[in-house]
Amino acid sequence: QVQLVESGGGLVQPGGSLRLSCAASGSIYAMDWYRQAPGKQRELVAAITTGGSAIYEDAVKGRFTVSRDNTKNTMYLQMNNLKPEDTAVYYCNADWKWTACPHNIQTMCVSPGNYWGQGTQVTVSS
């Protein structure tokens, strides 16, 4: 069983940067980041395979970079050029899988695994 602990959240001005970390215990899993803003559904931000291949939500492409260090069993999310719309609780997730997208069964989507961190708050505001 894996435990996940996020850190690195905080308050930052628009255009600023933050680096989130997710420290995992246990096995090496494919890992991903989700976020949830008040009143909104939890959404995928970025995913990374055990080998380091990354997938990004369109809203963060070009601004966020997901990476991992398997020797530390830690995943990171470098967030640059932050926008107020990025304000949310960011959650680390592990053991995601590819699944057929609900809107198009011929397209593959990331389906979250059952392991979740406690979340870390990211607030982007001036």
Could you explain how this protein is built, in words?
Helix content is 0%, strand content 56%. It is built from no helices and 13 strands. It has strands at 3-7, 10-12, 18-25, 31-36, 43-48, 54-56, 64-69, 74-79, 88-94, 97-101, 104-111, 115-116, 120-124. The strands form three sheets. Strands 2, 4, 5, 6, 9, 12 and 13 form a seven-stranded mixed β-sheet that branches. It has a four-stranded antiparallel β-sheet with strand order 1-3-8-7, with no helix packed on it. The chain has a two-stranded antiparallel ribbon with strand order 10-11. The radius of gyration is 14 Å and the shape is globular. The model has no long low-confidence stretch (mean pLDDT 97).
Task: Give me some keywords for this one.
single chain, mainly beta, 4-stranded antiparallel sheet, 13 strands, 0% helix, 7-stranded mixed sheet, 126 residues, 56% strand
